[in-house]
Amino acid sequence: MRLPWTDRTGRLVPLKLVVFVALLPPGLWIAYALATGQFGGQPLKAATREMGSWALRFLLLSLAVTPLRALWKWNGLIAVRRMLGVGAFVYGAAHLALYAASQGWDLGKVAAEIVLRVYLTIGFVASVAMAALAATSTDGAMRRIGGKAWRNLHRLAYPIALLAIAHFFLQARLGAIEPQIVAGLFVWAMAWRAAPGKGPGTALALGLAAAILVVGAETAFFAIRYGAPVDILLAANLDPDMAPRPVHVVLGFVAAIAAVAFVRARP
Length: 267
Ligand code: HEM
What we know:
The protein is mainly α. It has 12 helices and no strands.
């Protein structure tokens, strides 16, 4: 059997080994924190949240491979996209298992919760679709399904990410900022795919557009859901005491990506 950090000829691919190793610490830390009682009064609930957050972060990283590969002129990045996708699936499965554990492994109750609570139903649909992508990410499945059909199937990663972000938003607490950041970077990665230009300038312009969208969506979300005053929500984005706000983090990520692209674009 081929090791995850080797290529088709069995040769070691250092980038694959680095990413494989980097996928492990969050899960190991969550297991350790759970085992040593570091998750406070509701450890399984906290561990479920942590594991879910990492599932979404790795899913987003797998979607970032295409723009980063082109922007940074780094073809080798393609070698780790599958690993990041499968990593997201494994963290998603662990997330679901932790949730079942938090329900005392009462699978009937888990199923009822998934049917009755919209954010769990959305999470479930995303999990089933992730399982389908994970099951078809082997070399054999690629060959059997064939290039074009396989690529179309794996474009399911886009709606999966959208569902997972909606799942995250719907259960987010007032003051949480990560859902907005993830949403902003997702919008950027999707807009980049659709954009005619593929250079660092385009990346920056799309980053600005995604950041403005985040401010708009965040303001609308908290104004509607919690009745928070719009002017205060908007002003918070300019208040240094409130920094970093999601808009700052999204702009920061995109600026860093574009800066590397500018450097690599220089003759
Ligand atoms: C059947 C499938 C799923 C179930 C039952 C489920 C269940 C849950 C539950 C119960 C929470 C809230 C934890 C709490 O505060 O009590 C949660 C949060 C979350 N889930 Fe899921 N989830 C599922 C699928 C997914 C998938 C596929 C992803 C990502 C790829 C995901 C990402 C997240 C994230 C990011 C959070 C928020 C964590 C936070 O607040 O810090 N979930 N999920």
